[in-house]
Specification:
This protein is α/β, with parallel strands linked by helices and about 220 residues long. It has helices at about 20-25, 45-60, 105-115, 135-140, 150-160, 185-200, 200-210, and strands at about 15, 40, 65-75, 85-95, 95-100, 120-125, 145-150, 165-175.
Amino acid sequence: MGRGPGPGAGPPLLIACALGIEQFALRSGERGGASGPVTVLRTGMGPDRARRAVSRVLGEEPWRDAAVIASGFCAGLAPGMHPGDLIVADETRGPDGTTPCTGTELLVKALVKAVPRRAVHTGPLIGSDHVVRGPERAALGAGGAIAVDMESATTLRTAASSGPRPVAAVRVVVDAPEHELVRIGTVRGGISAFRVLRAVLPAFFEWHRSLLLPRR
């Protein structure tokens, strides 16, 4: 998990990701500036694992009232995206419905400062229970979504259903329409995305500090 609360600590921040490599990137980033207890939770891949893991942690102290950010890698859906681009969801879409995100504009500004020279895209992030390619990718993009992953929609839906709290989703593009994972350059694109993911924590902490969590 992460560090627990200390004297006078602010509200907690739960950062949820699916993969060990994502957790490693987030844990190895700059940790200074947090205003309360922070944990980086590895949920495992897929919506079912995300639901179980997030429900479990939000049922425990001190994380019951935590703000939640879903993070990690994703597939971009819009033409012109590149590995290492950032996605900031204004909402997540999944089979259980749409979840609005909190403080999207603030996150964008903080990420532009934390990760300069990287493109930041804002729009709907859609959930899938499998890897999306080819025609299916195009269809999701035609429906207005700008990126897809397997956990963010379920993570935020589960968090929002567990009680009032700020929620957000920030993903790094590792796979894009013109840069699919099966193509030459995959390794280079993956390294680029990893480096970007390592750099996002200061933006997450700035977002967290700016929000007043409702307390039960």
